[in-house]
Amino acid sequence: MTSMSPVDRTVERVAERLAVPIRRARAISNPPEVSPAPQPEHAAYDVKLAHMAARILYRSGIDSLGNPLLVLSAAAFPDANEVDYNQLLPYVLAILPGENEIDELDSHGEKGSGGERQSRLHAREG
Predict the structure, then answer these.
(1) What residue spans carry the Basic and acidic residues bias annotation (predicted)?
(2) pTM of whole model > 0.90?
(3) 17 and 42, same domain (yes or no)
(4) How many domains does the chain have?
(5) Domain that holds residue 11
């Protein structure tokens, strides 16, 4: 058995100490996939979780450019000891605008690019 030099031992100790934070960082930067919430007509759909999600994140009209406004209510989050947040998350995410809705807003120029909606607003002002 060969003995390690002081530098090799130091490198090994540093590598051991960094292993756990590196694994944690990788887990954060590569979160697991979240399955979408079941559709309301599906047997696995949980009405209680859907109602909780609707109180946590909800739409509250549109802004002057036609973009949906979302309200996130921290006070509406249930006690983590009573609800599994991993089961609740898909229901909350389902409330967010989908890619199709965002693409539709972009294609109509309603994100401030001078599209039809802005033209109509300026026409009323003039």
Answers:
(1) 105-126
(2) no
(3) no
(4) 2
(5) 1-31
